[in-house]
User: Fold these one by one.
Assistant:
Number 1:
Amino acid sequence: MADSVLIEGLVVETVVGVYDWERDVTQALVVDLEMSWDNRIPGASDDVTDALDYASVSECVEHCLKELKPKLLEHGAEVLAEKLQREFGIGWLRLTLRKPGAVPAARSVGVCIERTACKGVPGNA
Ligand SMILES: Nc1nc2c(c(=O)[nH]1)N=C([C@H](O)[C@@H](O)CO)CN2
């Protein structure tokens, strides 16, 4: 099963960064997500409750990053991936977190992680 649900270019304004000055301002983070989901079920039922609702996931991403105020992108990505997998029952995801403007000579910098939930662990898919 290779189906997925996508979110691309989700912009979240939050406190992020390791330097003192970065703790006093907000900066934009850009989130890309690919999340495994069996789309045959909502494909047949035409019912959003069978789908991985990308609007709900987007709200969760925004809320999580605004509350977390991570220093490192790595920490933001790790906490966010774990929360999404637990709350939405997502088996596998690829999450990219970009910080445009952090390195002026680069279009963007960021991190990308892939995580698979461990079956049998309470709360995991
Ligand atoms: N691998 C990382 N390197 C750096 C990060 C980060 O989150 N992950 N962060 C910074 C600073 O916050 C920088 O973005 C300020 O411009 C430096 N390196």
Note: Residues 17-19, 22, 72-74, 99, 102 surround LV4SOB2L (CB under 6 Å).
Number 2:
Amino acid sequence: MISIKDLIYQYNSETRISFPDWQLDTRGQALILGKSGCGKTTLLHLLGGLLQPSSGSVFIDDQDLTKLTGSELDHFRGQHIGFVFQKPHLIKALNVQENLFLAQHLAGIPKDKERVLEVLKTLDLLEKRKSKVYELSEGQAQRASIARAVLNKPALILADEPTSSLDDENCARVIEILLDQAKSQGAALVIATHDQRLKNQVQSSLNL
Ligand SMILES: Nc1ncnc2c1ncn2[C@@H]1O[C@H](COP(=O)(O)OP(=O)(O)OP(=O)(O)O)[C@@H](O)[C@H]1O
């Protein structure tokens, strides 16, 4: 179960965002919707522990993220949370499979080549495993970032505008993969977006 309560994030004296209390079941799927600037990305970063709230709580299963120190949070994030961003934040100097080995390393998980190849196969990227990130098409790069997000079997997958820059065909493919992967891994999936194409594809939504 994911839950937020009395959650507030203050960037500065002008920008203070207060979020509605909200819960999502383990294995639940939700879109975070709302107009530009309402705080969708901020909420995703709070759920993923990339930002610490000014007040309130963020629970991922039984863990209150606000109670973790910086290094505990890094460790928790690496093991329990997978991120997919609008642009695939992969390391350009590394090839696709090296990016995935790095994700295992950063999460403190022993190198597991079998798992890396399994995930790349699921995402139809096996042949591209030795390609540098800049050699991939936009859709392939987005699939590589999904591969990295699901690699460590996270309890929660967070995706920030994962489809906005993709054409209809790649958009349909990416959302299908995200939903499939979340389902098969038993993970909850939260997608922040203003992409109208996703509206009827996800179980529930939170309007900010
Ligand atoms: N680093 C920052 N410093 C100060 N204010 C910020 C910072 N990042 C975001 N904000 C402000 O916080 C508010 C919420 O931003 P956020 O990016 O979460 O919105 P969003 O709903 O994701 O927007 P969009 O749909 O345009 O991506 C906005 O008013 C934004 O200007």
Note: The two ends are 20 Å apart (CA to CA).
